[in-house]
Amino acid sequence: MTTIGLIRHGSTAWNKEGRVQGHTDNSLDAEGLQQAQLLAERLSTEQWDYIYSSDLLRARQTAEVIAERLGLEITGLAPGIREMYAGLIEGTTQQERIERWGTDWKTLDLGLETPEASELRGSEVIEEIAARHPGSHILIVSHGVILRSSLRRLLPELDGTVLLNNTSITRITKSESDGSWNCELYNCARHLEKE
């Protein structure tokens, strides 16, 4: 069985402002770095063999903190698991979108990547990484929307309506016998809970 831990990056200033990030290459804020450290500490009690990251800075920084704590090198950067491209709405808040395009802005063609394209892109990368390291325990640091899109394709029966928290981990496994995926843990961020 192959185990994959899907991790959403730590928080950024734009997360706090409610701005769509998409492919914009923002860094973690101070809280995001702290979240990554808390997750890294949690993961240090588990067995992980490889770590991959989206090529966007906020994911790379999260992966670097984890890799250092686990004594691993980042195995690879995967542009295929970068966040969904958000076209003209990148950098905007909900209020700014309404002011610019009206309340029906979601019905307009604003250059966003389609959900179907992101599902295919993200799930294919996860499948490729799993195939590269069968039977291993692999971390993939990525982004909230692309991870939920990928999970929709890999595990259609999974209720992925809950948004992923910063530095949450979702653990999925792939059966070597039939290639089926199973979700063992979804959106777990217990490392951020105050004691």
Automatic annotation (TrEMBL):
Gene3D superfamilies: Phosphoglycerate mutase-like (3.40.50.1240). CDD domains: HP_PGM_like. InterPro entries: His_Pase_superF_clade-1, His_PPase_superfam, PGM_Phosphatase. It holds the Pfam family His_Phos_1. This is Histidine phosphatase family protein. The lineage of its organism: Bacteria, Bacillati, Bacillota, Bacilli, Bacillales.
